[in-house]
Amino acid sequence: MISANKTGDPVRSTRKRMGENLRIIAWAVLLALVFRSLAYEPYRVPTGSMIPTILIGDYIFVSKFSYGYSRFSLPFSPGFLSNGRLFAEQPKRGDIIVFRLPTDTDQIYVKRLVGLPGDQLQMIKGRLHINGTVLPRTPAGDYAVSFGGRVIDVPQYTETFPEGHTHPIIEQSGDAGFADNTPLYTIPDDHYFAMGDNRDSSQDSRFLNEVGYIPYDNLIGKAVLTLLSIDDEGWGLRWSRLFYTPK
User: Does the active-site annotation cover 82?
Assistant: First the structure.
């Protein structure tokens, strides 16, 4: 006579455990997708247009709910949000924004928002003018950047927006860079103007055919945290940038 196993049928017990594990994994994946879609999404920054604020190899967290949700901030660009935003909030001058490139929505850019709807902007001899007033800037010492395979020191400044927000910028070519003198830009309604903090090495709204004015709907979110950072060679961890908050 064969006695029954006190734990019951071992095959059924194994199947039950497997089913429970699969349900846990499925819930974990679902929660991760919801978190990434609606709360925070990570992005790796591949270019240096936002140096010194954001470096090549930074992994930034982007807050999806900062500006509400448009079809470009949600996965698969759902058709029911073809125009407008849910829970819309207006961005502020000085925010570090992540957006879909207006001229190619498959590409994602990160820049600093410098111009609001209705503003008039112009670069004159390397200085940013907003609505006819030049922004104050103060020297902040040289900043070391890699350029042409070597490290060079370039001028760094602290720039101040009319609302009082301060942030660093660098001028690799001084005040005579290729986009340091521009025409006057008038920002249309529901559009924004963004520039890189690395003023002489940034393809941004100054180039109307490549980037231009950024529609409100194209905003994905606001960069709020650098989770970690890997150096240019892809091996070394920049410990000082762990959980760094870009301003």
Answer: no
